Amino acid sequence: ARERREMLDERKSSPRRDRPRGGETPMKKTESENEEDFLEEKRRNPQDKSHLAYHDERFRCRKCARNASCFAVHKATQRMITIGKKTSLTTRTRNKNNNNSDKGRLRGQRAKRRDFEEAGFGGASSSSSSWSREDEEEEEEEKEGLTTTEKTTARTKLEEYAYDDPRYELKKLKDSGHRPTMKTYTSLICALGKQNKAKEAEEIFNQEARVEFDCDAAIFNAIAHGYCENDQPDEAMQFVDSWVEEIGLCDRPDMEGMKDKIAKPNRATHPEIINAYARNGEYRKVYRTLRIMEEKHLVVPSERTYNAFIKGCIENNDPEEAETVIERWNNEKYDLEKMASKLVTKPVAASYGMVIDYYCNNDDIGKGRKLLEKMRWANVAPSLPIFNMLLKGYLKSGNPRAAEVIFRELQGGGSWDMEKMRVKPDVQTYTMFLEYWANSGDTENAERYLTAMRKDKNKIKIDSFVIASVAKAYARACDPVMAEERCKSLMEEYKIKPHVVPLTTVVAAYCTDGDTGEAERVVREMMEDYDVNPNERTFSHVIWAHGQREDVASIRRVASWMIDLGFRIDRGDTKNSLFRALQECGLGRNAVENLIQDVANQDVIRKRRTENGNQRLYDRSNDEEVNTAAPQTPPPPPQQQQLQRRSIAVGQRGRRGGVDANTNNGTTRRAPRAFGHARRCLAVASSSGGAVASFYF
């Protein structure tokens, strides 16, 4: 013990080892001892820079007080960025179809709105008196025993105030003792600009951001772009002019050194303003802005500036003006002053691509092809997306020969040097041709382009969507067996993992052919053999096929099958499919609603799962309802099956023809000629097998 005391006396003091413990009175240290402790701590942790940072007593957070990175500030900033990506957050209308649980939800929303009001962002419609009045009315409703639906539907629509306003996030951040950063204010201003609150964003910038920081160009640009989001380019231009005037005032002798602290406009400032003017068709103001941009703001127009001008012309449905902009842009190379300063830019493939895409989408492909030739004279190399735009336009207009001419250009058989430009067909190029021939039911041309994909020297990878297009071609050719065979053989040949898209195409092929048993077999194989989960579209095809056969019991069985797999049948596309199929069977709207609610009843679901051993997969063989409802009939002969399938296909074309033929008054009627042919086919089928023919009819 004596030796240990002597050893401790020889050691130097340390703040961590010699800190006062419970019950001990701390001894005052001299300045030399404090300096030694500081050096000892610095030696132990050389990465700690806290001794170099200042401490701002306005903020309770220790990291924010010494201007360090704080996770709470980062989280709030990301929240503001997320709010900025959304649109129309200021007001929301409640749904008229209220249920009994709306009262608790409404109370929670009122609490959020009250928090927002206390933060200082309430309007005249959300004052404290209105809150107390609404709470009193809610208490009276509870005392009277009235339901929420009876009271809330009698009122006008309640506008829910946006509690997730970015200003509310800033207020919470400040109240918790944190310091917003420059990025926080920039995100706040961007979000307010997208919410049509550019004026409020400018006020926050002048009152808070400029006081705390030496603002950079990004936050100035955010305010100008916020005005452009609200279609107010004049106010945006006035703000930029005042910004430039403030920079000019820094040239005075009494403000020496301030000019370097104020950011200057850059190439990201004016494109949004020019795009807003062009969207409104104010082309004179665009050219005036370009002139002011060069002369007063000292910013040279860049590629981004002219592309914003072209994009605005396209959004204004004025492609001729966009072509004029491209021509003026090309003529800048004759400006000797700009050529000497090496500040001249020229159009790129994306500049022409915006105009060509507009022409192709509006069935004016000839002008798009002419613009492609102008690119040759302007010495601008086109990219692959431009050729794909023309291909899509020609195929959409039903001109496959012209599309094949463009395709030969891509393969190097035209006047363009594709190897030099490094442009070659991709999987999207071939898929467009496959989709076109698949929609036409031309299996020969579909197989021809599939063979071309295999032999392509670029080694294009065949994916699930290519296989789905090939299967679709056989489905449109009324050959579902071949569609299934080609789908499975291609997946095995190219070792492609089974996907829901090609297998759903096979299901649709069998449903179009009227063979619902084979369609359900493929659905079961998807889950059992390939481990692929069918989606709503898969079952929609099966439901539609049963609806064409007017088999209500099978529709109900498939709906129960979907519930066992975890689907919701009381909303979305599944409900719409059930509605259409059951209405085809002759049921009214109320009957369809009652049937869907009956199938979706949770007690029935729980009972059926208990009977099946709590299995998720629905076993069709154990369905007693179907076995009792549908009579067991022997399969019809092949000739009769062909007549039945033909009658169903003709009836489907008749329905589609009736919808297209009568579009004036918005009603749908069936084409009598097609359905007359269908009835004649059924009459022929009934002569050989009356029971089956009546069942199909």
Describe it.
This protein has 697 residues and is an all-alpha fold. 65% of the residues lie in helices and 0% in strands. It is built from 37 helices and no strands. It is extended. The N and C termini lie far apart (107 Å).
Supply the key terms.
697 residues, mainly alpha, 37 helices, 0% strand, extended
DSSP strand tally: 0
The helix-and-strand class reads mainly alpha
User: What's the shape?
Assistant: extended
Radius of gyration: 36 Å
Which percent bin holds the helix content?
A: 55-70%
Largest sheet: none
Count of discrete alpha- or pi-helical segments spanning 4 or more residues:
37
How large is the share of residues in beta strands?
Answer: under 5%
Low-confidence stretches: 12-25, 88-112, 121-134, 140-162, 616-633, 650-697
The average pLDDT is: 75
Measured between the Cα atoms of the first and last residue, the distance is 107 Å
What is this structure's SSE topology?
Elements: H1 2-10, H2 31-44, H3 62-65, H4 71-85, H5 102-118, H6 128-144, H7 148-152, H8 166-175, H9 182-194, H10 198-212, H11 217-229, H12 233-249, H13 271-279, H14 283-295, H15 303-315, H16 319-330, H17 336-341, H18 349-361, H19 365-377, H20 384-396, H21 400-410, H22 418-421, H23 427-440, H24 443-455, H25 464-476, H26 480-493, H27 500-512, H28 516-528, H29 536-548, H30 552-564, H31 572-584, H32 589-599, H33 602-611, H34 624-629, H35 638-661, H36 672-688, H37 690-696
